[in-house]
Amino acid sequence: MESDISQAFQEELTCLIYLSYFTDPVTISCGHSFCLHLSWEDIEVPVRCPMCREPSQQKDFRTNVVLRKSMSIARQASLMKSLSSKEQKCVTNKETKRIFYVENRIYLCQLCSDSHEHSAHTHCPIETAAEGQVEKLKKMASLRGKIEENQKNLEAEDSMIIQWREYLT
User: Fold this and answer.
1) How many CB atoms lie within 10 A of CB 87?
2) What SUPFAM superfamilies does the record point to (predicted)?
């Protein structure tokens, strides 16, 4: 029963075009959701939903914050489930691996982390490492947004140049 609910929840959080979890979900007028990084700019209005084929006049999409927050919760739940799985148990000490060994990018249990073998290495709690990665992803998303904005500006400039050339000839 619990796995059926979990499976249904995972399906709801899956982009039906990329068949993977949403990264930056937007919802169009028919109610279906897709990843924002789909290139809608080149598509003529009205846009047709890839799922139901309903036309939509919308081209300026806004992030579905509820779906994005649900994705965050699902990722955290997945991390916690992964941490409690058998593969996350230390073979030597039978403890859950909760420490991230930065240099080799592997997980260690607390006893292995404290051992002489790893004492000179850089370690941090898994949660801290995950937060660092989330921050990197946020910066990357911000940069992606700036790149997209710059591309739009370049396209506008190119269009303006073409118009001036046509006007002058």
Assistant:
1) 9
2) B-box zinc-binding domain, RING/U-box
- pTM for this one? 0.45
Query: Domains (ranges, CATH) in the chain?
Result: 1-68 (3.30.40.10)
Q: What is the C-alpha to C-alpha distance for residues 90 and 10, in angstroms, rounded to an integer? A: 28
Max intra-chain CA distance, the chain:
79
